[in-house]
Amino acid sequence: MALDTVAIAQRNPDAVQPFAELGLKPDEYARIKEILGRRPTSSELAMYSVMWSEHCSYKSSKVHLKQFGDKAVKTDALLVGIGENAGVVDVGQGYAVTFKIESHNHPSFIEPYQGAATGVGGIVRDILTMGARPIAVMDPLRFGPADAADTRRVLPGIIAGVGGYGNCLGLPNIGGEVVFDETYIGNPLVNALCVGVMKHSDIKLAKAAGAGNLVVLYGAKTGGDGIGGVSVLASETFDSTGPAKRPAVQVGDPFVEKVLIECSLEIFAEDLVVGIQDLGGAGLSCATSELASGGSGGMKVELDRVPLRDATLSPEEILMSESQERMCAIVEPKHIDRFLEICKKWDVTVTVIGEVTDGERLEITWHGDLIVDVPPRTVAHDGPVYNRPLAKPEYVDRVNAEKVIVPRPSTAGEIKSTVLKLAATPNLADKSWVTSQYDRYVQGNTIQSQPDDSGMVRIDEKTHLGVAIATDANANWSYLNPYEGAKLALAEAARNIATAGAIPLAVTNCLNFGSPEDPGVMWQFAESVRGLADGCLEMGLPVTGGNVSFYNQTGAIAILPTPVIGVLGVIDDVRTRTPMSFDRAGLELYLLGETADDIAGSEWAYMHGQRGGCAPVADLQREMRLIELLVAGRTSQIFTAAHDLSQGGLSASLTEMVLRHNVGADITIANIEVALISESPGRVIVAIDPAKLEQLLALAKKQDIDIVKIGTTGGDNLVINGAVIPLNELRTAHTETFPKLFG
Amino acid sequence: MKIGVVTFPGTLDDRDAARAATHAGTMAISLWHNDADLKGVDAVILPGGFSYGDYLRCGAISRFAPVMEKIIDAANGGMPLLGICNGFQVLCEAHLLPGALTRNHELHFLCRDQKLEITNNQTAWTSSYSVGQEIVIPLKNGEGSFQCDDAILAALEGEGRIIARYVGKNPNGSRNKIAGITNARGNVVGLMPHPEHAIDTLTGPTADGLGFFTSVLKALVK
What we know:
A: 27 helices, about 35% helix, B: alpha/beta, Rossmann fold, about 25% strand
């Protein structure tokens, strides 16, 4: 193909261009022509098409996501908010923490290992780009039915990819989720979270300020992999007729990224960059246009200087390539020698590809010919915005009116079999087959990891300051009521931080949905965002950033609405955290919170093919009082253990507690046919030394939280209302599911 | 006492090893793979990770790093040298220890709290333990299965050069459940599990790993 230049575009305004094949709508193409006052060159068309894709431009979600800003709480804790690569939160003692979740769903279905691996790689670079040292990762994952043939293809590959990349970067994997549901069979969800830490003064932003400053590309060479990768893949649904999309999946090399991290941190430590941006979705198109529009706007780039893995790549392909492990920095000329020296030390390929100008246009040349001449803001930020039609789907009222009919355990035999079935069901079974493929020890600061309620890492070895993170989604509830579902997921994630005694500080999210072109899906999305924004406002937690993944849909089958909510908390002394379980006999167990007949959307209902009923209504005031209670109890060291109740209710939580240190419990509880399986939100089991009872009761009274004694610890059995479940039998049920399914 | 901790590109557990060495009362000194001298250290640790991305074979490229030339000379002269995980792989590639580490028999990366039995406390790195003592420290690797020919195995067994064995189920298919070995002189030790991740119960499953680092301190003071 002959080179298309700005001059040719002016001379030949009517050339037919493949805008539709690149995913642009006719009106979007017309808008580009209007911006430029001419037809775009093929390189400009390539840039606009990837940057205006759903994945990069958030064109369908923007109008809703605005609420996170409009309803934001005023907080001093937020140092950098939405819009940058990741939000930054003040955690005290001069430390700042940055965290974010992103999806890599579509690539992971096509090529599970590389899709998941590069998902980890991408989010880690986002965190690094803020100036932070990445300190941990988490990965909420969702798959089709555990026994489906395709799950046996997808799951092992994704797990190996998450581990293969994260382990090689030296990042502890401190938690996540593994959930199965039929709706994910053609659209597994791979969400990856990374958290990083820095000093306040080290925060870096994506901006190219200062005429004469140099644009420096460093890291891996650019190849033909992932051309239009996420941006194209994640912006349409899968169907069976299209061409194979495998070449659109990026291929990662974690070793290159590890070296890139250490090299970048050394560069940051010497304060050698003015601005920095990683190359992720939309590659150089994104990095150059975002850096330029973050500054004064002017930038010149000589694209032919970009080091290539494949010398035959065209300028359009170079602009669209999503080759991994690349960074773009803005460097003052006086610092460039030192910058190059550090890259040399780490054997990192580095090239000056351009400079910041005092103009307002991003100009890109190819061997001297001008091939791109655009106002960078129009590429990076002024993409189309859609207020897509939305309508409450007809299923909602229908399923809400359904009565949930499930077996209710009441006899000793029924109680035992219910507990064993819940312990063994894939959604609740022991996940060590998965988590044992992840390194949780590297860096030596991991305080909690799976199967604890939250992941916790120490960030200062002298003061023992730490952070805790939990991610949660309950798609069953979101299906029944997306507004409440989002609030409930927020409450659960915050509670999972608080059981250890950490104080929730900030929220990130990864919103996974079907096609935004379906008004019903769009309604689910809008309701979820509204619920999350209202919830965050009520709980006083800022949203620091997030990610939207649409088009998780195969044919007419959309995934369940799956807003994954991540909450970050701080703990002043990790040594004083409340553990998830007890390791000795003679403790008393109390249930905090109110239990109602909340079977709709429960795991027990799902196991019996029941998808109907009404989701619980979140009581966030009560959730906040419970969190206060848990934090106060940790501070005064009342609890020996505290564990959240969520999927699987009391049965699942007791199972996890007794198996953790192989210490049994004797439980007596009223209304067992509800109490054992209900998933009422806002509940926690605590274990205390009997001598602490007065303190506990006083705390519960002060916070107005229901409290009831449910039993004592000890023995080799879990005994519930006289039903005796030997720990060995319970352990076998809980642990054999995954090895049996996945070898 | 100064203990050098080597960082190759792709090394991950260097800061952990330095922390453990410091915790045991020694001074940790960073050594860079391109360094031509050992900065006067009294002992060296090759930490875990994926040096050079495990390209070609684990440890195959690191073995040729400039710093290794000096380390090999010093070890042949009796300097205590500990290779943990990837470091053990480097020691085998450098022929300071016999055998090789191959892919785990179940073909997965495996991270677990592993019980070991100490079987030789006469080395520079194991004197703080008693023979037969059981310890629990993290095991985390994809290629940790120790393999060698029958003659070498017989020699290792006969000369008491196996310093630790896995207890219970063999986690990775290592011959004779070998977790770690030493050279004839007892100054060079290779160990697949990670003692540096078990120096306190806050961040590790136990504090059982600290003994490796206090052992070398004793050896150096002697």
